[in-house]
Amino acid sequence: MFQVLLLIVVMILAFPLIYVVSLFTERKRIGKAEERFFADREPLTDAQYTAAITNPLHNDFHFGARRAMATLCGTTPDMIHPSDSMRTLLDLQFDSGYIQDFVFFTEQETSTQIDLRRLPDTETTTFGDFVERLAEGNRIPAA
To answer: Do 91 and 51 reside in the same domain of the chain?
Structure first.
């Protein structure tokens, strides 16, 4: 009985320590990701962004998605470039980001619904291509 109680006490005391260590290591990981991301990075104006995307007809959707990603990454929209890899952008977020968070923020910014079953691959896709694929066929008009 004593061993069970001791185990419970150790677990109760260990949890806050594990939590603090996890927060510290996650903040350190994000700091390194931000350092790599922002090194020598120049802001990209809306006009430059528009010139770099494949279909300017989807500008409003792209700009909404860009604002959503900037919010999640804790930066300004002009620091999000269409050539950024989705993985790099997700790595700037706590716990390496969740694509569902990006989708929900994009839906709010663009007043649309996105079909989560048809999302492009986040590991190999650039931000511009990912957003373009969302704009082309995964949107459902918001009710």
So the answer is: yes
